[in-house]
Automatic annotation (TrEMBL):
It comes from the Bacteria. One of its GO terms (cellular component) is membrane. It comes from Sphingobacterium corticibacter. The lineage of its organism: Bacteria, Pseudomonadati, Bacteroidota, Sphingobacteriia, Sphingobacteriales. This is CDP-alcohol phosphatidyltransferase. InterPro entries: CDP-OH_P_trans (IPR000462), CDP-OH_PTrfase_TM_dom (IPR043130). Keywords: Membrane, Transferase, Transmembrane, Transmembrane helix. GO terms for biological process: phospholipid biosynthetic process. GO terms for molecular function: phosphotransferase activity, for other substituted phosphate groups. The chain crosses the membrane at residues 57-76, 82-98, 118-140, 146-169, 257-277, 283-302.
Length: 327
């Protein structure tokens, strides 16, 4: 179905595409999806989402279930019995299938909410916190000293940064190609306004969660200064919508960088986690997280900042994007 209006509005734009299938509608975007997700997790997630939709189960209930299953999976990695570990692996795969299903269910049934996004974003952190604790205790049982908690904690902190920035850059990409309605891009300024509307007495839990999420978002913004400048200039210059050629140019330059957001996310780390468990060398998981995935995170941020700087400079110079502003 073709766009009738050549101007893609910031809050409602989308790249011209044919009518999507139910499976495609359940995805955020093919630009940001990893092949393993497309081939494996998303089909399973859609199947679960359709069952939940018929049963009236909410996306948040699916997310909470995934947290408990993912934490249980992590606990099973403590044991030095391969068959128990394999059960943990299967549970972790199922937890991630549920994590896929909650978003697909929210998109198919239009039950998207900020709280759901926050809960979904933190689900993986609960899983991997359990995994890191279990692996440290396992290694101590094998004779390692308590010093193992240092790389265990460092790898956990690295994971939080990797996950946060990968998720942020994906949402920035979705913002450009789908607009606010197709993205989950938040900013501290808007969150602060909503935070101040809440009362610690009446909205204690909601205010506590939002306060934590503001800190999470603030970290993402501090690590992406050129991106913040780009988003600010877009907000000031294109109040009536983004020029179509800006959207297409950004997509062309930014889409190749989405592979880095995928590398530092769930699938890569879990494949190697399972490998280290099979050979009973789980300490390598911490080394891999710190010395392999963290440099990839740094390179990802560097490349994304270069793209943001390029488009910020192009817009500030009143380049070819200027004349489409009034369309």
């Amino acid at each position: 179905m073709e766009q009738k209006n050549p101007q893609h509005l910031v809050g409602n734009h989308n790249i011209d595409q044919p009518i999507e299938s139910e499976f495609e509608q359940s995805l955020k975007s093919s630009d940001t999806e990893e092949r393993i997700d497309i081939w494996f997790y998303r089909p399973i997630g859609l199947f679960i989402a359709k069952i939940c939709a018929r049963a009236g189960i909410s996306p948040n209930a699916v997310t909470i279930t995934s947290i408990f299953i993912g934490v249980a999976a992590g606990i099973l990695f403590y044991y030095q019995d391969l068959w128990i570990n394999i059960i943990g692996m299967l549970l972790l795969v199922f937890a991630n299938s549920l994590d896929s299903a909650d978003g697909q269910l929210a998109r198919l049934t239009n039950q998207k909410s900020r709280f759901g996004r926050i809960l979904d974003g933190f689900a993986g952190d609960f899983w991997f916190a359990a995994i890191h604790i279990a692996l440290c205790l396992r290694l101590m049982d094998q004779g390692w000293s308590a010093w193992i908690w240092i790389p265990g904690v460092l790898a956990g902190v690295a994971h939080v940064f990797q996950s946060a920035m990968a998720d942020y850059y994906r949402n920035v990409h979705l913002f450009f190609i789908k607009g606010e309605n197709g993205s989950e891009l938040d900013n501290v300024h808007d969150l602060q306004i909503d935070f101040e509307k809440l009362s610690w007495k009446k909205d204690t839990f909601s205010k506590f969660v939002l306060n934590g999420y503001m800190g999470y978002t603030r970290m993402q913004e501090r690590l992406s200064p050129w991106l913040q400048k780009l988003l600010a200039v877009i907000k000031s210059k294109y109040k009536n919508g983004l020029p179509l050629n800006l959207i297409r140019d950004f997509r062309a330059q930014n889409k190749p960088l989405m592979k880095y957001t995928n590398i530092v996310q769930f699938n890569t780390r879990v494949i190697f986690l399972f490998l280290w468990i099979f050979i009973d060398q789980v300490w390598l998981y911490f080394v891999f997280d710190i010395l392999v995935l963290t440099p990839i995170l740094i390179y990802m941020v560097y490349r994304q900042e270069r793209v943001s700087k390029y488009f910020f400079s192009a817009i500030e110079r009143k380049s070819m994007y200027e004349h489409e502003n009034a369309l």
